Amino acid sequence: MAEIVYLLCALASTFCAVLLIRNYRRSGVRLALWTCLCFAGLALNNVLLFIDLVLLPTTLDLAILRTSIGLAAVLVLVIGLTWEET
User: Fold this and answer.
1) How does DSSP classify residue 1?
2) Disulfide engineering: 70 pairs with which of 18, 45, 50, 65, CB 3.0-4.6 Å?
3) What whole-number distance in Å separates Cα of residue 85 and Cα of residue 8?
């Protein structure tokens, strides 16, 4: 059951990123671009979570890589929010 949740989270994050990039192309609002980049990073994080816990459960530990990508994704959003604030 957990495997399905991991994949659904990855699909939802990817879908959000696609919708946000379409919105950015249509409107030109840069905050949509920053948010799209964040969701793309979170989608990658969820894909790596699935790979780490389902496909390679005992051979390889991707926890540091997953955490780094998740942190970078949220950091991109925080930078975008503060940059667009000024």
Assistant:
1) -
2) 45
3) 32
- DSSP per position, 27-84: H--HHHHHHHHHHHHHHHHHHHHHIIIIISTTT---HHHHHHHHHHHHHHHHHHHHHH
CB 5 within 8 A of CB 11: no
Give me the number of domains the chain comprises: 1
Q: Considering Cα of 80, then 64, then 5, then 40, what sign does the dihedral take?
A: positive
Range of the domain at 76: 2-85
CB distance 19 to 35 below 8 Å: no
The values of phi and psi at residue 57, to 5°, are -70, -30
